[in-house]
């Protein structure tokens, strides 16, 4: 059975308190569509982001940062070797890192192979939608970057993926599930318009990295990232359309106060 | 003589109804300045976008998507061969595709040659400002990515370009003209601040691709994209400055209801 | 002693009047996180931006534009040779150009070497935070792209950097200092949330380039860019959170009227 986790829980607030205290340097390799929103979301919660593969950044920043996230669509700006360098550097330096296999299983074998080549570097967490994670675990994929499967259906598969990879695995949907293979956390709520903001899912990957930087419990930190993401979206619900929803989502992230 | 087309026309609304029904997967190679706005505009109207040249995406996604758009400034992230692969893949798979020759004729011969190399793959539609299209048809260009010519002056040239390429050609300006060489549609209105939002023109190219995905009349679909773009801009007119205008433009796109 | 410069000064307004009159073509090599905000800021004040290294743009546009800015993190999309080509082309064509050594000294030797390789092409202005400029002048660096030093502490070092490079050097902080080595201008005010908007500092580099395009006094133009940046931020102070602050900042830039 899944335990529900939400912004109402002190454990979630404690994770955000730790983040705001340590102001971790979080390094990301991501795609240029999502990069701006992800960086602004990290700044909004108090992390210090740097993004991109400028010369020796993938080795230096991945090892020197407090956490790393790799969004597979970073392959639109860098080769697989660059992503491998960053993943290896974080792994060898003992830094937590997040893998977001966006669009995995959507019909691009070379892309999928490049994502798989990162798994030996032991991501601390893997996040995606149901289609992507089912495909990563060996099933069928979705349509482009959109999911065609449900997070509920994916849960047993996602638990198996956590066991085989040793990662916390999180699947997004109307209900998000976060699992280490045994324990399952669930976050509800949020706002359906998150799926109409490009890079919103990618940004959740960045937030997970920031929460992993200084946690004692990776499962709890990944859960906290999801709860924070959902409460900010709920508080942005007043927005008129999808454009102002994205702006309000950042506003609410920046205003989240763990003491209130 | 040009026929006026606008959001008031049922034919325009029918094109948007088709888009919202089919939720087409629309793939784009574009520049990283415009990519975020274009993806959000596609999500706002109900399409499923993917952007970028990650490994085999240009061949796989261009053939597998319901429509493709190529913005020439994608050359800032990819080589001409990548754009050619995408154009060829869409052409051979019978997918509609849009060419946006942004900054064509602005003084970069290598860039212009790379854009020209895409024409043999028969774009379904070509869109640009007057300077770009006049240059593409063999005349003189503009200043950087800004136009120095008027859409009215360009119309006869644009009609010839449509005849020689077999594409629907659309020229943006205070009045937009859309032509297959014989018939001419005109859209009026919009908001001058569209020219002060980076990537707005590029985003029109993405919307054209989305409307072409499931249409029976490419001319009608390209016209509908322009009418949709203009009505959303008009409804965003309340915005205080150019920053909130871009946000409001996305809001209004997301709220467009073909039944009202 | 530093002279204070602000939006209240006619000299600042005169620089913006010149910009709005000439509508300079400003070309940039920057990172894909900041590119959208920078382009929109340039459009907001009346410049005509183009960004990115598409084929021969770095040589053609850098020589043909009225001003150039290079943000070091452009190295995430281009090699050092591309940045050198742009810097050399601007230098040889007598175009003013701005160097923003973002993240210099943050722990990436190859990156730092690539930035240094641009100095022989004589940037007209260099801007950064205190950590970056202290490191560029030969001291210790910061944490990722965030500064860990203060602009006040950096001032003597920054003055020396201006003397050795021949550039106007500007250091950002709660107080910004702009110096040619002898004279020092200071801008106060602004809004601390500028540091929570990704690409805001990068965007200041773009504004500096735009103001340098048609000035008689580079020192005055760089000071004016800082004063304009700060007054727009102050007028955006009503924003609820960091998301709407960025939007309001663009709004206020677009509404700045040198006559009022």
UniProtKB/TrEMBL annotation, chains A, B, C:
Pfam family for this entry, one = HK
Q: Which top class of enzyme applies to this chain?
A: transferase
Q: Which cofactor does it need?
A: Mg(2+)
Q: Where does ATP bind?
A: 127, 172
**What EC identifiers does the entry list?**
2.7.1.50
Q: What does this protein do?
A: Catalyzes the phosphorylation of the hydroxyl group of 4-methyl-5-beta-hydroxyethylthiazole (THZ).
Protein's name according to its UniProt entry: Hydroxyethylthiazole kinase
Name of the encoding gene: thiM
């Amino acid at each position: 059975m899944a335990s529900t986790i939400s912004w109402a829980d002190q454990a979630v607030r404690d994770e955000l308190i730790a983040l705001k205290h340590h102001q971790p340097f979080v390094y990301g390799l991501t795609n240029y569509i999502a990069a701006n929103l992800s960086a602004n979301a990290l700044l909004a919660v108090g992390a210090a982001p740097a993004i991109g593969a400028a010369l020796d950044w993938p080795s230096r920043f991945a090892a020197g940062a407090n956490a790393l996230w790799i969004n597979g669509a970073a392959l639109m700006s860098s080769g697989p070797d660059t992503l491998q360098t960053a993943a290896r550097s974080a792994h060898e330096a003992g830094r937590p890192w997040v893998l977001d296999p966006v669009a995995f299983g959507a019909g691009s074998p070379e892309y999928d192979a490049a994502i798989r080549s990162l798994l030996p570097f032991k991501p601390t967490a893997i996040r995606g939608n149901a289609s992507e994670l089912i495909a990563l675990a060996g099933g069928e994929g979705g349509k482009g970057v959109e999911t065609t499967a449900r997070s509920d259906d994916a849960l047993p598969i996602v638990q198996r993926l956590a066991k085989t990879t040793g990662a916390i695995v999180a699947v997004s949907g109307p209900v998000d599930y976060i699992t280490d293979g045994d324990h399952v956390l669930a976050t509800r709520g949020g706002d359906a318009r998150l799926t109409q903001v490009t890079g919103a899912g990618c940004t959740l990957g960045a937030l997970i990295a920031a929460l992993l930087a200084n946690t004692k419990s990776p499962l709890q930190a990944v859960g906290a990232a999801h709860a924070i993401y959902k409460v900010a979206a709920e508080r942005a619900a007043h927005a008129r359309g999808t454009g102002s929803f994205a702006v309000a989502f950042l506003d609410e992230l920046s205003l989240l106060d763990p003491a209130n």
